[in-house]
Amino acid sequence: MSRSNFVVRSNCEVDKLILKKSDTSSEVQVLGVEYSNCGTHCRVMVEREVIMSAGSIGTPAILERSGIGNERILKPLNIPLALNLEGVGSNFSDHIFVFASYRLKPGHKTLEDLTRDPEYAAEQKSIHEQSGGGLFSHPTSIFNFQALKSLVSEEEMHEGLKLLENCPSYLSPKQFEAVVNRIKNGVALEFSLVNTFFEPDLPSDKDTSYLTANVILQYPLSRGSSHIKSQDPGEPPLIDPNYLMHPFDAWLLAQGGKQIRKIMAQDAFKDIILDEQYPGPSVQTQEQWEESIRKRASTSYHPIGTCSMLPQSESGVVDPQLRVYGTQNLRVVDASILPVQLTSHPAMTVYAIAEKAAEMILNQ
């Protein structure tokens, strides 16, 4: 792309923003950006705006190293406070999920066979190249989204909703109301089926083919944080996801686990399944399901919320124009601005945020 106003600098890592108190107001102005390029310290000065798009982990880290964040986090690190925004790095939310792994009866081929049988892999590759068929044409996952009402009985629904009677202190009443409304009336869980073994921290049988069913929490009530540990940009931040801190999250995932077991007991699957390896038939009661979930829940790598678009009085970091509160020329354009989770994988929404931001900037 040959445009005089567009320059890409690769192999660079941003250290911090160069800030100055405005001469005409109480706001902070961004004068430039300090970064390293393969170990060389560099600086670029700003004529108009700075747009932060470092993601839900990177964006709050850069803000904090620049002196924008919670004073209680920055003071122990000897970072001069430029702007006290308590919400920076807080409200961390992620889609978490658990697996149910099923061993298949002999004679059924899955993706495992492509990695452990070179002749079979070559045969399937040839079929795919010639006709577009074979195992290489199989989708890795089949997805389905389900409402809470379709998963539980009225009695179970009443039991679960008891856990939603009180707003937790770390959420604003508006946030809590929005999340609970989506849980009750929207899509509560995502299910996917993967034609291979998909348990990252557990062993599989070497010569066995597997199906793995996953259940993914769409609207977690738990909240965590991501904060820097030092002024050093090379040191990763401390991420405390606080998964399953709210009891409803574990309760709902347990309902999803039970639904997977019902689905896999249908004739279409029963004829090919040998047994359930994880969590295993010993898991039966609600308490056993929740215990298993707390041991095995994993991330979908969909973090959001660490620079949320909320009122500043509710620990918000950006306003509806994506500007960081208290700044003149600093915006955030990434998933960190989302105050609550999505009923989807977030990539398309992040693209839409970028499109909206571009429109805002062009129209100002």
TrEMBL record:
Signal peptide: none annotated. SUPFAM superfamilies: FAD-linked reductases, C-terminal domain, FAD/NAD(P)-binding domain. It holds the Pfam family GMC_oxred_C. PROSITE patterns: GMC_OXRED_2. GO terms for molecular function: flavin adenine dinucleotide binding; oxidoreductase activity; oxidoreductase activity, acting on CH-OH group of donors. The keyword Ligase does not apply. InterPro entries: FAD/NAD-bd_sf, GMC_OxRdtase, GMC_OxRdtase_N, GMC_OxRtase_C. Belongs to the GMC oxidoreductase family. This is Glucose-methanol-choline oxidoreductase N-terminal domain-containing protein. It comes from Puccinia graminis f. sp. tritici (strain CRL 75-36-700-3 / race SCCL).
